[in-house]
Amino acid sequence: MPDLLTLVRRPLPLLLLFAAASVAALLIACVSGSVPLHPAELWQAATGHGSLLADTLLQLRLERALTAWVTGASLALAGLLMQSLLRNPLADPYVMGVSGGASVGALLALAMGLSLWQTDIAAVAGALALALTLFILARRDFARSSGTVLLLLTGVLLSTACNAMVSLLLTVAPESKLRGMVFWLIGDIAGTPLRPWPWLVLLPALVLSWWQARPINLLALHGDHAATLGVPVAMLRRLLLILAAVLTASAVSQGGSIGFVGLMVPHACRLLCGPDLRTLIPVSLLGGATLLTLADTLARCVVAPMQLPVGVLTALLGVPVLFWLLHNTRKGLR
Questions:
Q1: Residue 215 CB partners (closer than 8 Å, separation 6+)
Q2: Which of 91, 210, 232, 261 could form a disulfide with 86, with the two C-beta atoms 3.0–4.6 Å apart?
Q3: CA-based angle 61:66:67, to the nearest 5?
Q4: Residue 314 or residue 142, greater confidence
């Protein structure tokens, strides 16, 4: 008889466990807050027999929880794809500067007073522009491992340039818009409506990445030698870069710059279920969604009625995790 840990680590039980945790996170988000909802009140509101207060609280909290869910799922999947592209468990879209491009585009739209959908388009345009710049600068060696290293170094440099642009936008922004821009930059889901287009980005990205899971496995394991096994290395790297850029832009336009989710979740799930992306992709997606949903619930409950930016909590959680990863990396090198 296999022990409990071995049983849970099998793909199907692991997926069911993460799916149950994801649903539980949504339920916790719906009942928690400065005005708590009893589970019976939640059920009555969900079936249309609740009070006006319960119906209103359920609608507001469920919309925010679903926004956090899709944002966390997009960040985790983008981080996993970026780590597979660079063959480095410490990589994520923020290291590559893709989120910086999205932040510049979105902050520019906010400073100009554009509407919500125009801000989304600006964030996507900024992320794709930076991803295209990365590809153009590293295109000659993109099919080789040296191209991956060049891509990483170029991303760090462009991220620094984007941070300078963000500082400039905050400096010249009107006083009336500065507070909202700062909270958005920290990472804040409060007041963000539930929109359909992040789901329309996440679902095709999930299907496409899972369909290419076996070639991505070979690329992550063998690098350049994956081409001898029939893997179109250059095309696959372009696909990973584009998917990570679009997912990051979707997440940034929803919740601002929420760091460390794309770094922590894929690595933790890899330690739990192994490196096979056929299992790792859906597990990381559910793990990121669960983590950010719980973090956002904590952000609005820990000092209620005041609400903290969720990016603060993910950073406070991510820094010690990053130190732990670096410590384990040093031990492995020794």
A1: 226, 231, 232, 236
A2: 91
A3: 100
A4: 314
Q: Is the pTM of this model over 0.70?
A: yes
User: For residues 240 and 266, is the Cβ–Cβ distance under 8 A?
Assistant: no
| Helices and strands of the chain, counted as H and E runs | 15, 0
Rounded-to-integer distance, Cα 215 and Cα 217, Å: 5
Q: Which of 262, 264, 257 is nearest to 322 (CA)?
A: 264
Tokens at residue 290, please? 């669960």
* Res 267: pLDDT: 83
Residue with tokens 């990396």: 329
Taking the CB of residue 17, how many other CB atoms lie within 10 A of it? Answer: 15
Total number of residues shown for the chain: 334
- Which residues lie below 8 Å from residue 110, measured CB to CB, with a gap of 6+? 119, 173, 177, 180, 181, 184
CATH number of 4-333: 1.10.3470.10
